[in-house]
């Protein structure tokens, strides 16, 4: 359900509901249109619908007017899981996210990411993961689930742990290719599977299957289409009785060496209850109808699991007053401000800057249209803390920084279809040239910590984890000694 065409294509969505579709995944919607559309579609269906969305970083990630929260890796560095007050704060954050989600019309949040960050250049997990330590990540995954789900039917959402049995060892984006993970079953049991088991034990309503080939578990079929992994490992061995959903079936990793319809059918035959985001939903229905090897009892079991999940939720609320939504957002932002300040990590150096400073902002995603805006945000937030305005950098001549103090801000989001977590080759080249000429250099990663690996010779290295106005302002305060 693309938000930018929600109103213009609404009759198409209404027809799909009339034809029997009962679940949608939302991208790029807004608070004005989405809740009303959901209510109208549920009236058409005469039953609750599953309205799902990737809200790993809060409602604002997919719904304009919603609130953004830090990525999982930032949260893990801002929360001390041994501190009772931090435990309460963490769960409170996700309770508020769940409430805002319900007001937006979304009742199923496709998080937590239970993957481990085990490959420095993983192009699709990285900062979306809580970390690389299995026990620490398991704690965060379990508390994340409880925060979203354990607050009564009016405010809870359904949580979904992903991407089973673990995408963190991959150096490949499954949107583009099928990753192959060569690891022993023993290692997977004591590491990758632990956060998923904790999420299951916390009552997680859904588990999302990754498009991953793990020869130790099944040498032929990807996890999302593997009976051994879905039915034997996840259900029988790990005891998961909730809803199993595939990752998006329009991803290249979902297909392997077969066609879209066959991959949808095989995922269902393997034990998946929901087929997510097939390129052609009607063709997927035809493919499921041809799954002759699936007994009627199995179909009924899938239906019952979905009904059981929906029973945990009350009917969607009417659209909230703007003032009430604003108060909810203010409370979330208050927690975010606190956690951002606590999550900053000085990897090296850390002395405050003084005097004129040159700023170089390299935005890996500027082709998406936010490069100029991101540069302005960082420049403006930095100016608020220095007596001498920093020199603005119009061209990319490394000579501009000779014998000067230069702050290099690296922005790079983790996103599907991109294929990498690091900088492009020419941006890495500019970083090196600048470091070679600068009198003093400070490098900040507003993204994956691996962005700092090629800047080890800098005087100061800082991880801020994600690009946002609040993170940029926190970094500016840190550099200028005014937190």
Structural domain count: 2
Portion in helices: 25-40%
Low-confidence stretches: 385-394
CATH homologous superfamily title of the largest domain: Glycoside hydrolase, family 3, N-terminal domain
Work out the radius of gyration: 23 Å
Proportion of residues in extended strands: 5-15%
Q: What name does CATH use for the topology of the largest domain?
A: TIM Barrel
Report, as a whole number of angstroms, the end-to-end distance: 41 Å
> By helix and strand content, what is the structural category?
alpha/beta
Q: From the coordinates shown, what is the CATH architecture of the largest domain?
A: Alpha-Beta Barrel
The profile of the biggest β sheet is: 6 strands, parallel
Fold blueprint:
Blueprint: H1 10-18, E1 23-26, E2 29-30, H2 34-45, E3 50-53, E4 63-64, H3 72-78, H4 84-104, E5 108-109, H5 134-149, E6 158-164, H6 185-190, H7 193-201, E7 206-209, H8 227-237, E8 243-246, H9 252-255, H10 260-270, H11 281-289, H12 296-311, H13 322-343, E9 345-348, E10 358-363, H14 371-383, E11 405-412, H15 425-437, E12 440-447, E13 460-463, H16 469-479
Parallel strand pairs: 1-3, 2-4, 3-5, 5-6, 6-7, 7-8, 10-11, 11-12, 12-13
Antiparallel strand pairs: 9-13
Helix pairs in contact: 1-2, 3-13, 4-5, 4-13, 5-7, 10-11, 13-16, 14-16
Short note summarizing the structure:
The protein has 483 residues and is of the alpha/beta class.
Keywords:
single chain; 483 residues; alpha/beta; TIM Barrel; Rossmann fold; 2 domains; six-stranded parallel beta sheet; five-stranded mixed beta sheet; 16 helices
